[in-house]
Each structure stands twice: as C-alpha cells, then as structure tokens.
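Exercise: predict the fold of this chain.
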Amino acid sequence: MSMESFAIPLKVAVLSASSGDQISSTYEEKGHGLFTYFMLKGIKDGITEIGELFDYLKPHVERIARKTYNNEQTPQLVAPGMLKKQRLIER
C-alpha cells in the first residue's frame, strides 16, 4: 500500500524512510537508520525546509542502500506544495 492512498490532512507532511514494500536499512557504522542519519545530517548542515531536506536525503539514502546493502530504499514525501517550503526548524 502506498502513502498516496491514505487521506492526509492539508496541514500535514509525511516523510517516510522507504516506500510501502521496501525494508529500511540500518546504517550501523553511523549508529542510526540510513534515513535518520541523512535527515539529521541535512538538518545539522543547515537545511530547514521540508522539501529541501527531502531533496537532499533521498538520493543519498537510495545510493547508499543500493551500493552498501544491495537494497532498494526510496524515501517518500507526501505533502501539499505549500508545506514543502515549511520550515522544520527556526534558526
């Protein structure tokens, strides 16, 4: 089942580590899940908007999952366009 099949309220953004039938990888050498590691790294590096964070972490997660774990892992973002510019953190 995909996230797009759920009714998500207009003021809610959903970020998930993988698509419905995939298994999310751990990133043992970094002490986090693969998705969590790149999400935290993006925030630490100064990324504050939901859409920008997703655009940063998605290719990193996909590449490391494929290269290191021979696994397909595709992070998902479901959000109305206006929320993609929403700040996660005020600095």
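Check your answer against the key: Residues 3-84 form a domain with the Alpha-Beta Plaits fold (CATH 3.30.70.1470).
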